[in-house]
Amino acid sequence: MFELEFMKNAFLAGFIISLLCPCIGLFIVLKRYSMIGDTLSHSSFAGVAIGLVLGFNPLITAFIFTFICALIIELLRNYFKRYAELVMSIILTFSLGIAIILISSGKSSAKVNSYLFGSILTVSKQDLILITSVGILCFLAIAFLYKKLIYVTFDEDGARVAGINVNIINYIFTLIVGATISVSIRVLGILVVSSIIVVPVAAAMQLKKGFTATLILSMIFGFLDITLGLVASYYIDSAPGGTIAIISVITLIITIIFSRNT
Description:
The chain is an all-alpha fold. It is 81% helix and 0% strand. It is built from 11 helices and no strands. The protein is globular, with a radius of gyration of 18 Å. Keywords: Membrane, Transmembrane, Transmembrane helix, Transport. This is Metal ABC transporter permease.
């Protein structure tokens, strides 16, 4: 299996994504901000459709479009403070509308399926370089802002009193989420990428550890889910996104049973 170039690329990309998605996922879950995953995954769908129609690298156009949508989401949240979920619905609807129009035009070809469901056959070296570069930048940003992110996640008002620029932190974090989703769709697929951000975190939270321990456990579960999913999808010839999603839910069920029996 590993003598094949596309499998090496897929596993290297999967390794980075398996650590990055749960890492941002814990902050998203604790902020009760889970719908942003679905919203930005639909934004990436529109970005992919734009790239396919215009003949550009879909990952790059997905990255740019998702980036713009992430900025708009955070901007609109300041105007709809009491109805933050409304902002998500607006951006989700707008992005899905763009994607449907472009896909139905017939100019985007059947390649869209590999982005919808994920594919281990089509992860190129160019994709791997982009995924690695964005992954490193996201990890560095999270490491640099780690303490401030924790503070803002648990108590925005207290963070403001402490002199932290909460709006800037939220902008940066939203951009990190958008960047993570846009580079994850190649392996995971647009339809399930948001679940991979949340489900490993849900599994880790069942073990009732502290914040840092839960973060590490989330990344471990994410790594196991994606690795086992890629191996299984190779041998049973299935879409990796769906396979990974099923395995992540099975892992969650196992941790729930384990936590209740200990």
